[in-house]
Amino acid sequence: MKENNSRSLLLCIALILVAVASRILNAEMHWYHFGPMVAMSLFSGAVLKRKSYAFILPLTAYLISDIYLQLVHQNGFYGISQFFVYGGMALVVLLGIFMKKVNAANVLGFTIGGSLLFWLVSNFGVFLSGYYGGGLQGLTATYIAAIPFYRNEFATELFLNGIIGDVLFSGILFGAYALIKNKVMATKAVA
């Protein structure tokens, strides 16, 4: 039992480090929204037995990378909308908990759902910050601005980066997990 807890803890630490490194690299390379955060949140909720780890994992990765971004670029902490980013990640973990069967179709569907859920929640935080004004007009302006928010100087800054990154990283995480799980099961069957 203790060995399983150690493995879970090591998996969590490894995922946090990979997520932090990836988020920092993406920020430095201006590959906005192309990262493993939603995928890791969904994976944590669906796979980790200890649900406290499932919630702590993405939030810790976000916090560590936000600290780096604050120290290096002075933009890691940016106001009320940040609470909605963290809340969106927690909701994606919860979505992963509701994934009863881990298969390719569920992973794809839940990943796209998680990506859209995160987008809706995080941009609602932008609306509440008042950047685009208040009322229905401000809410509409916020979500319209958030769809592609393409700017010529950052050609990779597209809403699609989030979905593409989420699908890619979910495929990697869940695929690697399935391969490892199958290998372990095959080893136990031989032993």
UniProtKB/TrEMBL annotation:
<feature type="transmembrane region" description="Helical">
    <location>
        <begin position="77"/>
        <end position="98"/>
    </location>
</feature>
<feature type="transmembrane region" description="Helical">
    <location>
        <begin position="31"/>
        <end position="48"/>
    </location>
</feature>
<keyword id="KW-0812">Transmembrane</keyword>
<dbReference type="InterPro" id="IPR046487">
    <property type="entry name" value="DUF6580"/>
</dbReference>
<keyword id="KW-0472">Membrane</keyword>
<feature type="transmembrane region" description="Helical">
    <location>
        <begin position="110"/>
        <end position="132"/>
    </location>
</feature>
<dbReference type="Pfam" id="PF20221">
    <property type="entry name" value="DUF6580"/>
</dbReference>
<protein>
    <submittedName>
        <fullName>Uncharacterized protein</fullName>
    </submittedName>
</protein>
<feature type="transmembrane region" description="Helical">
    <location>
        <begin position="158"/>
        <end position="180"/>
    </location>
</feature>
<feature type="transmembrane region" description="Helical">
    <location>
        <begin position="53"/>
        <end position="71"/>
    </location>
</feature>
<keyword id="KW-1133">Transmembrane helix</keyword>
